[in-house]
Amino acid sequence: AQKVTQAQTEISVVEKEDVTLDCVYETRDTTYYLFWYKQPPSGELVFLIRRNSFDEQNEISGRYSWNFQKSTSSFNFTITASQVVDSAVYFCALSERNSGYSTLTFGKGTMLLVSP
Amino acid sequence: DTAVSQTPKYLVTQMGNDKSIKCEQNLGHDTMYWYKQDSKKFLKIMFSYNNKELIINETVPNRFSPKSPDKAHLNLHINSLELGDSAVYFCASSLGGDSNTGELFFGEGSRLTVL
After folding, report:
1. Can you tell me the distance from the alpha carbon of A30 to that of A73, in angstroms, rounded to the nearest whole number?
2. How confident is the model over A85-106, as pLDDT tens digits?
3. A-chain residues within 8 Å CB-CB of B96?
4. DSSP secondary structure, A45-81, as one string
């Protein structure tokens, strides 16, 4: 069975600090996808990134960067120079590909509080 | 245009009532899902339909019954509501078959409060 662990329940930082959100996953499949979603206080789920299991390249998008390491089964997310608008719950998720549909398993989320 | 839309967004009702939440997607996806987010923010899959056929049915009470009249719609009906049903329910859709990339497109959520 697949499992996603986000050990950090809540993180508080001051604006402009860098912050890393940890994600560790378990799966027996060789083909899988990893995701990060953001859930701001308004409640919707905002897709941030998808990474497939064959692509270990790190990715940077503006202030966001992701570090995927299969050797440690981790997919960590870093926000550089955090802003108050980054305050949200962040979910890491894992999807195994079963017969063409997605069984997306979420971690329990990390609440990020960025204060001015 | 909203890709995955759910109605209603907020629903407050009494214990014992029956209620429905509707979901529609205009993405042309084959597969739709219902997820439940509890008070601790934990997101868990409840059901999934592929081309109107039930493919995932997690351990959910029989009081919950999904219905998919066509592949663009997946409604959730809940009978005899209980306090513990209070949660945010998210509808989602994805491509099916070989086109599936694992990505789910989520609706905005429907917050159900049972009093």
Report:
1. 12
2. 999 999 999 987 665 666 789 9
3. 100-101
4. -EEEEEEETT----EEETTEEEEEEGGGTEEEEEESS
Mutate to test the interface with B, among A3, A104, A106 (most CBs of B within 10 A): A104
CA B21 – CA B33 distance, rounded (Å) = 13
**Does the CB of A38 have a partner CB in chain B at under 8 Å?**
no
Cα–Cα distance for residue pair B10/B30, rounded to 1 Å: 27
Q: Which positions in chain B have a beta carbon within 8 angstroms of at least one beta carbon in chain A?
A: 31, 33, 40-45, 48, 50, 55-56, 88, 90, 92, 94, 96-106, 108-109, 111
Tell me the two tokens of residue A53. Answer: 């299991």
Q: Which residues pair with B2 in a beta bridge?
A: none
Q: How far is the alpha carbon of B17 from chain A, nearest alpha carbon, in Å?
A: 25
Q: Give per-residue pLDDT as tens, B79-115.
A: 999 999 999 999 999 887 666 677 889 999 999 999 9
Question: Partners of A9 in the beta sheet?
Answer: none
Q: Which chain B residue lies closest to A111 (C-alpha atoms)?
A: B41
* Local structure of B83: helix, strand or coil: helix
B11 — pLDDT class (breaks 50, 70, 90): very high
